[in-house]
Amino acid sequence: MKSKHAGMTLISFLILLLVVGFFAYMAMKLVPAYTEFMGVQKAMNDMATENFEGKTPLQIRNDLIKKMDYQYVSDGTITPDDITIAKGEQGLQLQVAYDKDIPFISNIDFLVHFEKSVPIQGNVAASQ
């Protein structure tokens, strides 16, 4: 009578553990960047509800950077050059676009691009 063995061998278990560990390590590296972007989105949505009558683009950028500090967005993530105010389809748009370079293994990095725009209310003064 033949007996059938069911289950994984030690080698197949180690290979499965290696694959799961690789993807878990990748998630540990990428999740903080995405949670930081959620803070940027929340700060921008707060800015969309404000009225910017007579404020300059520099004042609007400073207000957004201050709101992002409250959302625990690190100082080196977004520079003032990443924040633009441009005319969009629905009037003026506050736009943030930045890239985040995340080191992974040895000389392998992730380059993640984040972009968000929200409409702003009021007449923005000309930059000085």
Question: Which structural traits does this protein have?
Answer:
2 helices; 3-stranded antiparallel β-sheet; elongated; 128 residues; alpha+beta
List the helices and strands and how they pair.
Blueprint: H1 10-48, H2 57-70, E1 83-88, E2 91-105, E3 108-119
Antiparallel strand pairs: 1-2, 2-3
What's this entry about, in short?
It holds the Pfam family DUF4845. The chain has 128 residues and is of the alpha+beta class.
Proportion of helical residues: 40-55%
Radius of gyration over all CA atoms, rounded: 23 Å
* Uncertain parts: none
Beta-strand residue percentage: 25-35%
Oligomeric state of the chains? single chain
How would you describe the overall organization of this protein?
By secondary structure, the protein is of the alpha+beta class. It has one domain (10-119). Helices cover 41% and strands 26% of the residues. The chain contains two helices and three strands, in the order ααβββ. The chain has a three-stranded antiparallel sheet with strand order 1-2-3, with helices on one face. A hairpin with a 2-residue loop joins strand 1 and strand 2 (91-105). Helix 1 (10-48) crosses helix 2 (57-70). The longest helix has 39 residues, at 10-48. It starts with 9 loop residues before the first helix and ends in a 9-residue tail after the last strand.
